[in-house]
Design brief:
Blueprint lengths: L11 E7 L4 H9 L4 H10 L1 E4 L7 H10 L3 H4 L5 E4 L4 E4 L2 E4 L8 E4 L6 H7 L4 E6 L10 E5 L13 E5 L10 E5 L8 E9 L6 E10 L5 E5 L6 E5 L7 E8 L2 E7 L1 E5 L5 E4 L3 E2 L9 E2 L3 H9 L11 H5 L5 H23 L5 E7 L1 H9 L22 H17 L6 E6 L5 E7 L1 H7 L29 E3 L4 E4 L12 H15 L3 E2 L4 E2 L1 E6 L15 E5 L2 E4 L1 H4 L8 E3 L6 E2 L9 E5 L13 H8 L16
Parallel strand pairs: 1-21, 1-22, 7-8, 7-21, 9-10, 23-30
Antiparallel strand pairs: 2-33, 3-4, 5-6, 8-20, 9-18, 11-12, 12-13, 13-14, 15-16, 16-19, 17-18, 22-33, 23-31, 23-32, 24-25, 25-29, 26-27, 28-29
């Protein structure tokens, strides 16, 4: 399997994506001999830190991996985007278009550019792509593709769960529906599973279910018209899949998959339902290419999560499920992905194979606080020593996956193991909109004060007096004439204002902590190039490790302070200065280890097959 990277010798390229693996954790684990398969690769060709994107976000980074261009070339800059004409905040990964009422809506990928599998398809080389972010709707290609991050749940969101309770004072939390139960603690309870909204009436489509206490203590039976007709759920454990069908109209139905966690059966039921996933056998919109690939994959490995965010982090953030139950669901997601990988590798004999394992990223987001006793998210919570090693446990699982892939490597295979970015602590929030307000660049409507009154989604902003505003995780937008619906910044003033904001933001300190919160800020023309630069934030903000834009500012809110502790269970992050959060890169053949970047991976894969890189690709092959 060893040797130099050479196009003539290669007939297979296998790429294993391990989302979020942090070099400062990988390297000492390698030194301790805890990652034997990665150690084998490091001993063959070395280990490199790979430069990530600005911002260092999963959809942005993997889009650069796929296209070989910076975000200005592929158009994905954040999880969120805004419609400048209306200031409406929406998904930055894809959107739906409906040209007229007689035609069905069509999903449109926000990621543009030419992918490595596009170029391989043109050259007659097949690809198998499993769960690459920003591949929904799925790209047409020679081979098979299962879309990843960007696939919505059946309600069109990133992950909308349901909480069932008879408690009178309960209220819905983040990305959650709440269903009130009429439960007397004795008889069956009739309730429903919530499906997609009716786009005309905005009412929810529903499937009726009945909750019946089984004779065995701690067991609940869910009866429904779905499959299976009776689903048994044990207290504290995740159920299997329930397949449900929502009737949308005379000739249309939506098929979904949902799982349940019985939190408590007695004296009254507390029940948690996962987001309803598209059924891979009959998705509402195509999630694979060819469209039947998802169904065939399910036939081979069983039902699986299809939503872009598989791991149910919102359930943990909302404190509906415990860390242990979150990890149990992560375990299920991991087994699904391994089964997919093995199923497809067993049939793979030439071309490109790519499979992404997202779980390390999600586990680090949610459990980083257990590495730091002083983390604000730990206040008032009991110590849980058993969870302090959960992240390293998933690194060991990642190593096992690499070992599984190595079983399919021969002397004409290039194996690439890659993380898209690293990881860091997230202890402090920076209220970027509050800073803009204090600098006189953002104004609130008369009578509205910063804080709760200002609301979210940019609703509290007085656009007639606002020159700059923030939303999303990556930067600042100017309220530009001719671009924003109520813009006031003249075109000739835009560039000086970008520079002025960047200069003032650079080096902003968190005086309470006595350290820098913002390492630097840069006008977008110093960060991006390409046809989609006009869609980027006007100023890109690079946070110091330990800091990040606040939850409030990311959703278009204006808080009352500049800095605040992050007390959420989402306690680790990577949306910081990209220089501080590189990814990890290993190969089974020698490669250029000086300064590799994500833009180099697509040219490297193409070079391995003897295919010329795309004319817009910015990187170069890592062939030494």
């Amino acid at each position: 399997m060893d040797g130099a990277l050479s196009g003539a010798a290669i007939h297979k390229v296998i790429v294993i994506g391990l989302d979020g693996l942090e070099p400062s954790l990988v390297e000492p684990m390698l030194a301790r001999g805890e990652l034997p398969h990665l150690e084998r690769l490091a001993g063959t060709a070395g280990l490199a830190r790979v430069a990530t994107t600005a911002p260092a976000q999963t959809p942005v980074a993997w889009s650069t991996f796929a296209t070989g261009v910076n975000p200005g070339g592929h158009g994905v800059f954040d999880f969120l985007r805004r419609d400048p004409a209306t200031y409406r905040i929406d998904s930055g990964l894809n959107h739906y278009e409906q040209k007229n009422a007689l035609l069905p809506p069509k999903a449109v990928n926000q990621r543009r550019g030419t992918t490595v599998w596009d170029l391989l398809t043109a050259a007659g080389v097949p690809s198998t792509v499993l769960r690459c972010p920003c591949s929904y709707p799925p790209d047409r290609l020679r081979g098979s593709l299962l879309a990843g991050m960007g696939v919505p749940d059946l309600r069109g969101g990133f992950g909308t769960s349901t909480y069932y309770t008879a408690e009178p004072d309960a209220a819905a939390r983040e990305s959650e529906n709440l269903v009130a139960l009429a439960d007397d603690g004795l008889g069956p309870v009739t309730t429903h599973v919530i499906g997609p909204r009716n786009p005309k009436t905005r009412a929810d489509h529903r499937v009726e279910v009945q909750l019946v206490r089984a004779s065995e203590a701690g067991v609940l039976t869910i009866r429904s018209p779905g499959e299976p007709r009776e689903l048994h759920v044990r207290e504290g454990e995740w159920s299997g899949w329930l397949k449900v069908k929502f009737k949308l109209g005379p000739l249309q139905s939506a098929h979904g998959l949902v799982r349940f966690l019985l939190i408590r059966r007695d004296p009254t039921i507390l029940l948690y339902a996962s987001p309803v996933n598209f059924d891979p056998a009959a998705p509402l919109f195509p999630i694979s290419a060819p469209p039947e690939f998802a169904r065939k994959l399910a036939d081979g490995v069983g039902k699986f999560h299809t939503a872009g965010f598989v791991e149910d982090h919102n359930g943990l953030i909302n404190e509906r499920i415990s860390e242990e139950q979150f990890l149990a669901q992560c375990d299920d997601a991991w087994r699904e992905r391994r089964a997919m990988m093995e199923h497809e590798l067993a049939r793979f004999d030439s071309g490109l194979f790519y499979c992404l394992f997202d779980t390390p990223d999600r586990v680090q987001h949610m459990l980083w606080r257990f590495r730091e006793p002083e983390h604000p998210a730990n206040r008032g919570r009991p110590e849980t020593p058993a969870l302090a090693t959960a992240i390293e446990d998933h690194y060991r699982r990642s190593d096992e996956v690499v070992g599984q892939a190595l079983d399919h490597v021969d002397d004409r295979t290039l194996l690439v193991v890659l993380s898209d970015h690293g990881f860091s602590s997230f202890q402090r929030q920076f209220h970027l909109n509050s800073w803009l307000h204090r600098e006189g660049l953002l104004a609130l409507k008369p009578g509205i004060a910063p804080g709760h009154e200002a609301g979210e989604f940019l609703q509290g902003i007085d656009w007639e007096k606002t020159r700059a505003y923030a939303m999303g995780l990556s930067g600042v937008f100017l309220n530009l004439q001719g671009r924003e619906g109520r813009g006031i910044v003249a075109a000739e003033d835009a560039e000086p204002l970008r520079r002025a904001i960047a200069e003032k933001l650079t080096g902003v300190r968190d005086d309470e902590r006595g350290r820098t919160a913002v390492r630097s800020a840069r006008p977008r023309d110093r960060v991006y190039s390409g046809p989609h630069v006009d869609e980027a934030p006007d100023v890109i903000v690079d946070y110091a490790p330990g800091h990040r834009v606040s939850w409030s500012s990311s959703m278009g809110g204006v808080a009352g302070s500049l800095h605040e502790d992050n007390v959420k269970k989402w306690s680790g992050d990577h949306c910081i200065d990209p220089a501080a959060t590189p990814g990890v890169l290993l190969m089974n053949r020698t490669f250029r280890r000086e300064g590799p970047s994500l833009v180099d991976l697509a040219p490297t894969i193409l070079d391995a097959f003897g295919v010329e890189k795309g004319p817009l690709m910015e990187g170069s092959s890592l062939k030494p």
